[in-house]
Specification:
The complex is a heterodimer of chains A (582) and B (635). Chain A is an alpha/beta fold. Helix content of chain A is 33%, strand content 14%. Chain A folds into 2 domains: 89 residues, Ubiquitin-like (UB roll) (Roll), CATH 3.10.20; 345 residues, Fe-only Hydrogenase (Larger Subunit), Chain L, domain 3 (3-Layer(aba) Sandwich). Chain A contains 18 helices and 17 strands. In chain A, the strands form 5 sheets. A 5-stranded mixed sheet of chain A has the order 2-1-5-3-4, with helices on both faces. In chain A, strands 11-10-13-14 form a 4-stranded parallel sheet, sandwiched between helices. Classes of the chains: A alpha/beta (582), B alpha/beta (635).
Chain lengths: 582, 635
């Protein structure tokens, strides 16, 4: 088929030449005409459900959706004819009649596609009766659906089916009572939801959000007895400024530290510290397995992503033992904060309130697991906030973000390597691990960028490295749909690897479900680039060179995989059950 | 009527004037006003809409909507109907809105029962009956709404025609290809799910048309006609290349449409397939059950040889069950076996005189016709017993074989016949007489033991049972219908004895006991499907069973081959969908066609096919199909 075949058409009086395969929407965009859309999500949801992008095409009585109909030679399109505009307006009013427009206290106010479309159409009233469903949701679950706000655009269904392959959402009921709910008539807490949050970041309105834990955190700040300790995940520094109007170069982790101190947090640390710790533990674990190759099952899988761990436990329970036993950096940090750091401060660990700022929704679930209480002072991590929640707190504290100055993080847990920073991008865990594994095997540092082959936004990457004479076959996947493909191939014996890194969100934590939302834009790649830039300029490029990590082993943990390390930094993935797991 | 005041003044208002005129007349001619005319039209629209109702709707929601319509029909005179139906509506809404408790179901039931017992006319009590039927029929759905706030139904069959086709043929896809004139691609696309497009173009029962959404506008698309047109225009379309040989061997027992289909797909997947056929030729019921005036032998032979050309071995005259073809001997020589023996035995009517010379079963007669041995019916007076498609087939064949008179005796009414209405009409047009409400009693023999008459008991139609009325003996004397041949077409059975003896599980109805994925219980590697599992059904069901078996046999053999068409489906064309009637198939004149065994039906012209293809609403793109489940590109 000829891909370059061009057609000429006229949109709003402008003559355009477009590829014959392009939609009216795409062709209009070429001419600088932005047709309003609502349910449309390029390549994922082109189903013409909201009927907001309807346009008039000369010669046809019925209006045509621009998002999923192609251009034709000689087509005369009017995106704004009275008929198109009035119909579009009525359709938006109809959507509003089934939408709980409590914008003043909606988490998506100001970042809501329905709000902008309605505002742009100058809609000031809705001539229809308000009809809101009364379905109930478990508000304790980290991921919350508000049925009264759902506009049935079906994006969440599509993201979960097509990108994540977990199929959590489905259309339920018929007629005007049609809504989206957990598939198979399950409750969310009974489902195998990975809690990745991709449905949240692709929801055009406030129908999906994370459970807001800010009040809990505010109480801790206000509590005089509590010593609040914050860890900031790598990927947060690449995104926290986005929704409060800061340029990426300005929105550094040091300015975030300053904002957090203004809110009253006592100590601001870096998850990169515990990322480096993770690399030491996970890398050593992998090398141990390699030594015992005949008796071990390969590949070993990374375990730092709680969405992936949930996916593995629910979809491939027979392979759970191939997960690294190393805890995620969030949990290693919590365990260290309430032991090693409590000792340094010489305080009762019960007094420490450990908060994590994460690009992730699943981390809320992870920190509450019964197996994540190893320091003996309640949850090792008391609360986990998403990047979005921390942004909301900045606004709540009426901090003017543009006035923030850079402030150093606290010591000693505020030190991280460049290898730690790239943990936030797909391939970063693998690269960081290989950098240190090389050192652990050869006692020599490799060229820092020697393992860059695993970088990039491909959903499933493979590479081979020579580790002091041993050929290592590794793979990296991000997005659970890509992961499922990899797992299938692995189980069918079509591929084989030694070490596999999985991140549940496409592009890794940079594209995490807890990151700021930009309707229609995928920013994981750009944010990943920021992280690789930070690594490049970092004066420590290797986890094993992190001085705080070295000190922590010397003074407390002894060495990787020591008894103490096992107690605090490793976990039993069978210690808790996914719904339906036996 | 009291007429006070000044009538002149009142009559200045046009409405009053009219009233006065009516009052003056003793009788008047009733004419429909435009509102009534429109409502009549809307009834028709609604009828068509109900016919084309999508599968998988919420039964509670539908019942609530019906109830609302019933209530609108209420004249309002009586309490149960006027008030009760309205209250039921509200209770249904409570259920649907999640405002109900389990007690609500009891209230609905109680109320509906009271309405049923006390409503004055059918508008009320029949509405209540519908509600009670619903409570009985789908109580779990009520409970699901109440307890979980949602429906247990699943709207997962978005494209009506595809979901109704047992083989799941991509119908909107091939209709779009016909519209673009890409006939060979249309054939390739059909073959992905059904290797017999030419056969099905002629004789498929087209369940795909039943719920065609186009019916909401005017009439369903003539899908079978378009398939026939595509095949006729495409000419020879080469079969796809087979996958690399796997070295696995599969035996297919039975060379009917199901067995052939399974063999075709398995061969495409690279397995070595051998078909064992009991008769002299392949085709099963297509050859030994369907007369050539419906399915020409050239088309059938062409289709079979095309399918065999992918590389399938055939052993004919191999009655599995007779030495040396015992299933025990075949099973160890193959990696898997598919049993698709169909339902080919005739059922006995169990009537006195059935053994008379001149009594023949439809199965027997059609089987000999299939091998070219035509019975001599010259100047015979024939009675056919039965009301199904096979009865019509033998009646119409008898006409063609020179019978002087052909009568069809059936115990119910003509409208109750299970034969397709067009088959019944065709038979009548060809001179067959339908004796409906005639229940056969016994067969009378003459001195030489030959048939001399059929005794029948006239029937009166009676009460409804499972949606069909049952006949009973009418209070009149039995009748003697003189005749010299009787053809019995009252269904077929399955001859599974030998398989049962070999340890294959058999159900009480002599069917082979197989799972819905065609595996046979406790017999690893043995699969079964089609008529021999389900009882006599349709060609497309047999083909679908063959497709399912092929997929699961492939899986069983440790492979995961996929079947695709490689055809790019044309994008939709923008279209306002003006109403347009359906192009029906034309037939050769009855007086001419009875003189030969050639095809009755004429194909569409290009003009007709193009118009018909344009009528397709493309439910794969418009509606739910664009969101979920609209197209299965491979299996």
């Amino acid at each position: 088929m000829v891909n370059t075949e061009r057609v000429k058409l006229t949109i709003d009086g402008i003559q355009i030449e477009a590829d014959r395969r392009s939609t009216i929407l795409q062709a209009a965009a070429l001419a600088g005409i932005r047709i309003p859309t609502l349910c449309y999500l390029k390549g994922i949801n082109e189903i013409g459900a909201c009927r907001v992008c309807v346009v008039e095409v000369e010669g046809y009585a019925k209006l045509v959706t621009a998002c999923n109909n192609r251009v034709k030679e000689g087509m005369m399109v009017h995106t704004n004819s009275p008929k198109a505009r009035k119909t579009r307006r009525t359709n938006v009013q109809l959507i509003l009649s089934q939408h709980n427009s409590n914008c003043a206290y909606c988490v998506r106010s100001g970042n809501c596609s329905l709000q902008s479309v309605a505002n742009d159409l100058n809609i000031m009233d809705v001539p229809f009766v308000k009809e809101l469903p009364k379905n109930c949701w478990n508000m304790e679950f980290p991921l919350i659906r508000d049925y009264t706000k759902c506009i049935k655009c079906m994006r969440c269904v599509q993201i979960c089916d097509k990108i994540q392959s977990v199929n959590i959402w489905d259309v339920v009921n018929t007629g005007s009572r049609t809504t989206v709910d957990v598939s198979g008539n399950r409750k969310i807490e009974e489902s195998d939801c990975a809690v990745c949050g991709q449905c949240i970041t692709h929801c055009p309105v406030g129908a999906l959000r994370e459970r807001d834990d800010t009040e809990h955190v505010l109480d801790a700040i206000a509590d005089k007895d509590k010593i609040t300790v914050v860890q900031i995940a790598p990927a947060v520094r690449a995104a926290w400024g986005e929704s409060i109007g800061l340029a990426p170069e300005f929105a550094t982790v040091k300015r975030l530290a300053s904002a957090l101190r203004k809110m009253g947090f006592d100590y601001i640390f870096d998850t990169n510290f515990s990322v480096d710790l993770t690399i030491m533990e996970e890398g050593s674990e992998f090398l141990e397995k390699l030594k015992n190759r005949e008796n071990e099952t390969f590949p070993m899988f990374t375990s730092c992503c709680p969405g992936w761990v949930r996916f593995m436990k629910s979809q491939y329970p027979d392979m759970v033992d191939q997960l690294s036993t190393a805890k995620s950096p969030q949990q290693m940090f919590g365990a260290v904060a309430k032991t090693y750091y409590a000792k340094l401060l010489d305080v009762d660990p019960e007094r420490i309130f450990c908060l994590s700022v994460m690009p992730c929704v699943a981390k809320k679930q992870e920190c509450a697991l019964p197996t994540m209480r190893d320091a003996g002072a309640g949850q090792d991590v008391d609360a986990s906030l998403t990047t979005r929640e921390i942004d909301r707190m900045i606004r709540m504290f009426h901090i003017l973000p543009e006035t923030l100055r850079e402030e150093e993080l606290d010591m000693p847990l505020g030190v991280g390597s460049g290898a730690g920073v790239i943990f936030g991008a797909t391939g970063g865990v693998m690269e960081a691990a290989l950098r240190s594994a090389y050192y652990l095997v050869t006692s020599k540092n490799p060229e820092p960028d020697a393992f860059r082959a695993v970088r990039g936004m491909d959903g499933w990457k493979e590479a081979e490295f020579n580790l002091a004479g041993t050929i290592l076959k590794v793979a990296v996947a991000s997005g659970l749909g890509n992961t499922r493909k990899l797992m299938k191939a692995l189980r069918k014996g079509r591929v084989s690897y030694d070490f596999v890194e999985i991140m549940a969100c496409p592009g890794g934590c940079a594209g995490g479900g807890g990151q700021p939302i930009h309707d229609g834009r995928e920013l994981a790649g750009d944010r990943g680039q920021i992280l690789y830039g930070l690594d490049k300029v970092s004066h420590i490029r290797f986890s094993h060179e992190n001085p705080s990590v070295i000190k922590c082993y010397e003074d407390f943990l002894e060495k990787p995989l020591s008894h103490k390390a096992h107690e605090l930094l490793h976990t039993d993935h069978h210690g808790w059950k996914m719904p339906g797991e036996t | 009527m009291y007429m006070g005041g000044s009538s002149e003044q009142l009559s200045e208002l046009p409405g009053i004037q009219k009233q006065l005129e009516v009052d003056m007349s003793r009788l008047s001619i009733i004419t429909q006003n435009s509102a009534q005319r429109t409502v009549e039209e809307l009834y028709k629209d609604l009828e068509r809409r109900i016919v084309a109702s999508p599968p998988g709707l919420c039964p509670v929601d539908m019942a609530a909507s019906f109830l609302k319509m019933c209530h609108a029909q209420s004249c309002g005179k009586c309490v149960p109907c006027r008030v009760g139906l309205g209250q039921l509506e509200k209770l249904f809404d409570d259920v649907l809105d999640g405002d109900a408790t389990l007690e609500t179901i009891a209230v609905i039931e109680r109320t509906a029962r009271s309405i049923f017992y006390s409503a004055d006319c059918a508008i009320g009590y029949e509405a209540a009956k519908m509600v009670l039927k619903g409570i009985r029929g789908f109580r779990e759905d009520f409970e699901e709404h109440i307890l979980r706030g949602r429906c247990s139904c699943n709207l997962n069959q978005p494209v009506p025609c595809v979901s109704q086709c047992p083989a799941g043929v991509d119908i909107p896809g091939y209709i779009a290809l016909v519209r673009e004139g890409r006939y060979a691609d249309a054939v390739r696309l059909i073959r992905k799910d059904n290797p017999m497009p030419a056969v099905c173009g002629l004789i498929c029962e087209h369940p795909c048309e039943v719920r065609c959404r186009r019916t909401m506008l005017d009439d369903p698309i003539n899908i079978r006609g378009l398939k026939r047109f595509a095949v006729e225009q495409a000419g020879e379309v080469p079969v796809p290349k087979t996958a690399p040989a796997t070295g696995k061997k599969v035996a297919v027992i039975g060379g009917g449409p199901g067995g052939i289909s399974a063999a075709y797909y398995l061969a495409l997947m690279g397995h070595k397939v051998t078909i064992y056929e009991k008769e002299k030729q392949l085709g099963g019921m297509l050859r030994y059950g369907i007369p050539s005036y419906r399915l020409s032998r050239e088309v059938l032979d062409g289709e079979i040889s095309r399918i065999l050309s992918v590389g399938i071995d055939v052993v004919t005259g191999a009655d599995v069950g007779e030495e040396p073809y015992l299933i025990q001997d075949i099973r160890p020589r193959y990696d898997a076996v598919y049993i698709a023996i169909g339902a080919h035995t005739d059922r006995k009517i169990g009537m006195e005189g059935e053994d008379a010379e001149g009594v023949m079963s439809a199965v027997e007669m059609l089987r000999s016709i299939g091998d070219g041995e035509m019975p001599d019916f010259k100047d015979r007076d024939i009675i056919v017993i039965g009301g199904g498609n096979v009865a019509m087939d033998v009646a119409r064949s008898a006409v063609r074989l020179g019978a002087k008179r052909v009568r069809i005796a059936y115990r119910r009414r003509k409208v109750d016949m299970t034969a397709l209405p067009e088959e019944v009409e065709g038979a009548i047009a060809e001179g067959c007489e339908v004796l409906d409400l005639h229940a056969p009693l016994s067969i009378e023999k003459d001195g030489q033991g030959k048939v001399s008459a059929l005794w029948v008991q006239p029937q009166i139609i009676g009460k409804m049972k499972n949606g069909r009325p049952t006949p009973g003996d009418a209070d009149v004397a039995k009748l003697r219908l003189p005749c010299d041949r009787i053809l019995v077409a009252i269904g077929q059975g399955i001859d599974s004895r030998h398989f049962g003896e070999s340890g294959i599980p058999i159900t009480r109805g002599a069917a082979i006991d197989a799972f819905d994925w065609s595996g046979v219980k406790d017999a690893a590697g043995v699969f079964a499907g089609g008529d021999c599992v389900t009882g006599p059904a349709t060609v497309i069901r047999a083909i679908a069973a063959g497709k399912v078996a092929a997929a699961n046999i492939d899986e069983f053999l440790g492979y995961n081959h996929t079947i695709t068409s490689g055809v790019e489906i044309p994008r939709v064309r923008l279209h306002d969908r003006p109403t347009c009637g359906r192009v029906n198939m034309k037939e050769r004149e009855a007086s001419v066609r009875v003189k030969d065994m050639e095809l009755i039906e004429c194909g569409m012209t290009s003009e007709e096919a193009s118009q018909e293809a344009r009528r397709c609403l493309r439910c794969d793109h418009f509606g739910f199909g664009v969101f979920k489940g609209g197209r299965v590109e491979k299996w």
